[in-house]
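Give me the fold.
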Amino acid sequence: MAERERIYHAEVVILRRRDLGEADRLLTVFSREHGKLRQIAKGARRPQSRKAGHLELFNRVRLLVARGRGLDIITQAEAIESYPHIHADLLLVGYAGYAIELLDHFTVDAEQNTKLFKLIGEALARLDQGEVPSSVIRHYELRLLDAVGFRPELFRCVSCGTDIRPEAQFFSYEKGGILCPTCGGQEHSAAPISLPALKVLRHFQRSTYKVAAKAKVRTSVHVEIDQLMESFLGALLERRLNVPHFIRRVQNGATIQQESDTIP
């Protein structure tokens, strides 16, 4: 963003928000033009505010922003996509929140990445359109890892370099990929991965979404991959992800108090 630019337009996805003072909101957004930003929406919590309805979590919004001494100030907001089906379904809120959580943790402030902006927009649109959430998220996870430079190696052993054979293998969170049975058996931190799970990950990694989503995957395989990816992503980020636990609680039918601005 040019230093002399005092007012700018931005197309953004709302990642996080929290109350600030008596009437304002502090937003974290991911923009097409400038990457991740933190901005203030003054008066957004007042009943008469014209901005309030446009600045919901997950929304894709067109903003007019004025640069401030500290944080920039949102002066106008117009929702481009509000994803009503996501907001009406607690499980979809969880999946959308998971996609947002990954984007937030894998990006730094003010670093433009149009590939990631396109990726999150596609994932939210597919969830809202009724696509199978597990397929949407699997494709999103692997494409996000590609975009941020952590593409997992699924075709060669990350230790000895041999081609992976069609059999159960191991996965190393530290080395970022598959270990053959020989190398995996020597690494205590490696996790086993079944052949069906490995095939699904390979299929989603090398295929377009349209092709990948056609795959019929057993629930048990999705559960195995969910656990593996949660551990791998947590190892990369050096922190525990919050939203997967929320998703599991919803899937298990637990009674959940849905918070207005955070998940969970």
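The longest strand covers residues 7-20.
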